[in-house]
Amino acid sequence: MANKRIGKQTVQLENPPSILSAASIVGPKEGEGPLRMYFDMIIDDELWGEKSWEKAESKLMRETIDKLLSKSGISNQSVNYILAGDLLNQISASTFALRDTGISFLGVYGACSTMTESMSLGSFLVDGKFADNVICITSSHFCSAEKQFRYPLELGSQRPPTAQWTVTGSGGVLLSSQGSGPYITHVTTGKIVDMGIKDANNMGAAMAPAAADTLVTHFKDTGIYPDSYDLILTGDLGTLGMEITNELMKQQGYDISDRYNDCGAMIYDVKRQDAHCGGSGCGCSATVFGGFVYQELLKGNLNNVLFIATGALLSPSSSQQGESIPGIAHAVAIHRNLS
User: Fold this and answer.
1) CA distance linking residue 56 with residue 28, whole number of Å
2) Across the strands, what pairs with 6?
3) CATH code for position 81
4) Where are the beta strands (DSSP E) in the chain?
5) What is the C-alpha end-to-end distance of the chain, expressed in Å?
6) 61 burial type by CB count under 10 A (0-12 exposed, 13-18 middle, 19+ buried)
7) Cis peptide leading into residue 182 (ω within 30°)
8) Residue 239, CA distances (Å) to 108, 163, 242, 276 in order
9) Whole-number pLDDT of residue 201
10) Among 2, 10, 48, 83, which is most buried by a count of CB atoms within 10 Å?
11) Cα dist. 44→40, 58, 191, 281 in Å?
12) What is the pLDDT of residues 9-31, one digit of tens each?
């Protein structure tokens, strides 16, 4: 009997894993934004000494893993699994980043929701005593994502006002059966929500219904009210998607506006930087959590956080064939202390 399940889509962890360390590395544009002091490293240029943007993205992930290990004091040999994914075909940025680690690898894909998907699955492994130490990590790169999903940068295509800027960066956490917190206590796994949005340059609108669906499900499953959290943080909706989510939540009887923010709205100064509706990409929520959120939890400025990364499950082929954009959102509840 699945006695850890509560409600429809939520698991309450019996042995909550501790987030032993977190790390983030970002690109130059992200390093000019309002969260710059929270990142472990800001690279000088998008290629970072590599011959392609894809190779640079793999390097971002590889170096972020090194930082996770050095911060935690855990050796490479003590990590049981790495759960990783990205936006590129066959999650190739992750594959080439991890091929020399010698650590068991589980590739995951949830588009921009990959960070909380990997944290969810990693929590299950630790809680179930299948692992003591698990790395959960993801990445994205503006140049590689634009080339794959939209148009080559050389074309100089105009971006509509609803567009978001794919974050160049990698963020991750090391989950452990040991440690003094912060702890992941609940996981609410999202389901696909598709409201028929077909515009690949309006992903905030495509993902917002999934974010709202997972949020409402989490509150109903757990009986935890929104005001129990210091921060409710969605992943990559940007300013427009955040506005839609706020409205959808109010329609369901939940006003979260006084404690709600979005990683895509936080990572850039949308008035000063040319990011239109803000940030997106796997690296958006990963770097904001691995930098800002984790450090604020350690400082005690945040005690209880509900973190919901959001994903637009499209491909170039599905868009070209006129398909709509399914959305997904996974939530993890994080508490500084278990008492």
Assistant:
1) 13
2) 10
3) 3.40.47.40
4) 5-6, 10-12, 18-26, 41-42, 81-85, 105-107, 133-140, 165-166, 169-176, 183-188, 231-234, 260-262, 279-280, 304-312, 327-335
5) 27
6) buried
7) yes
8) 27, 10, 5, 9
9) 78
10) 83
11) 13, 16, 39, 20
12) 999 999 999 999 999 999 999 99
Q: Mean pLDDT across the stretch 283-308?
A: 97
The pairing of strands 279-280 and 260-262 is unpaired
Residue whose pair of structure tokens reads 């509560």 in the numeric block? 6
C-alpha span between 49 and 87 (Å, rounded): 21
- Residue 195 and residue 241: Cα distance in Å, rounded? 13
Around Cβ 76, how many Cβ atoms within 10 Å? 12
* DSSP conformation class of 224: -
**The pTM of the whole model exceeds 0.90:** yes
How far apart (Å, rounded) are the C-alpha atoms in residues 50 and 243?
Answer: 38
Considering its fold, how many domains does the chain have in total? 1
Asked whether the beta carbons of 186 and 306 are under 8 A apart, the reply is: no
Q: Do residues 142 and 151 make contact, with C-beta atoms less than 8 angstroms apart?
A: no
* Beta strands 105-107; 231-234: pairing state: unpaired
For residue 119, what are the domain limits? Answer: 1-339
Comparing C-alpha atoms, which of 233, 238, 259 is closest to residue 330?
A: 233
The span from the CA of 182 to the CA of 178, in Å, is 11
